[in-house]
């Protein structure tokens, strides 16, 4: 990387720090055409520039209001977000998943970003989770799905379908492996998905719990109630508390 590239990476790092928490700075940055420039940098042949540009966009979207998210999403386009998730560099994939995680966090309408244009973003998420061995990608993917599972019934069912797509061989399924992971952060993120899928007030919670029980996921969650990691233990017990609302057969 030349001096110009190094300066751009440093500038992107500074932008990421500035926009992560402060809404006024986000608005000013957008009004000055900053989003267009960031999106252009995500298309760079230099992986460091792509990584830091996606990271900056991730922080721009974090806790952003609806108007800010819509502006950034339209500039990126659905197909390009999907391509970033499938970037050759795992570090870019991770940040792209975190970007989508922030897009779908918040109100019900935000979840729809993952389903735009026949769900090509969600399909890209599924493919990367299945093919990548990088733990950080699994963590971001699980938190992304956890946010989607906070949505309506169709959103929750889409997550169920993605998680149980390999249910004929539960012990080797991707989600089962995440629940069994040696990494406590990955286990925590996976259990969060179950918490949001089994929220008792959801009309379809009983049916989802029955499916999760049939494929052995509920049994795994029961064992995790005594996990050595406090975060995992608390989330597993929260999930079990919701599950037993419908009986413990």
From TrEMBL:
The keyword Nucleus applies. One of its GO terms (biological process) is proteasome-mediated ubiquitin-dependent protein catabolic process. This is Armadillo repeat-containing protein 8. It is found in: Cytoplasm; Nucleus. The gene is armc8. It comes from Mucuna pruriens (Velvet bean). Its main location: cytoplasm. The lineage of its organism: Eukaryota, Viridiplantae, Streptophyta, Embryophyta, Tracheophyta. One of its GO terms (cellular component) is cytoplasm. ARM repeats lie at residues 33-60. Keywords: Cytoplasm, Nucleus, Repeat. InterPro entries: ARM-like, ARM-type_fold, Armadillo, ARMC8/Vid28.
């Amino acid at each position: 990387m030349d001096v110009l590239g190094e300066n751009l990476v440093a500038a992107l790092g500074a932008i990421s720090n500035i926009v992560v928490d402060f809404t006024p700075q986000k608005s000013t940055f957008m009004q000055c055409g900053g989003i267009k420039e960031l999106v252009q940098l995500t298309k760079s042949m230099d992986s460091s520039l792509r990584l830091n540009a996606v990271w900056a966009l991730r922080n721009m979207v974090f806790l952003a209001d609806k108007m800010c998210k819509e502006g950034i999403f339209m500039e990126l386009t659905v197909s390009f977000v999907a391509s970033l998730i499938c970037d050759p560099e795992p570090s870019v994939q991770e940040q792209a998943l975190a970007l989508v995680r922030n897009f779908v966090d918040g109100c019900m309408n935000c979840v729809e970003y993952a389903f735009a244009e026949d769900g090509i973003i969600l399909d890209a998420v599924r493919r990367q989770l299945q093919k990548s061995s990088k733990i950080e990608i699994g963590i971001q993917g699980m938190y992304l799905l956890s946010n989607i599972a906070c949505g309506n019934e169709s959103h929750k069912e889409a997550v169920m379908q993605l998680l149980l797509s390999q249910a004929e061989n539960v012990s080797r399924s991707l989600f089962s492996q995440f629940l069994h992971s040696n990494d406590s952060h990955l286990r925590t993120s996976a259990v969060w998905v179950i918490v949001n899928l089994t929220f008792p007030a959801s009309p379809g919670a009983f049916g989802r719990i029955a499916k999760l029980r049939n494929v052995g996921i509920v049994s795994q969650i029961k064992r995790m109630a005594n996990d050595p990691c406090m975060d995992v233990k608390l989330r597993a017990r929260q999930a079990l508390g919701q599950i037993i609302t419908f009986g413990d057969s």
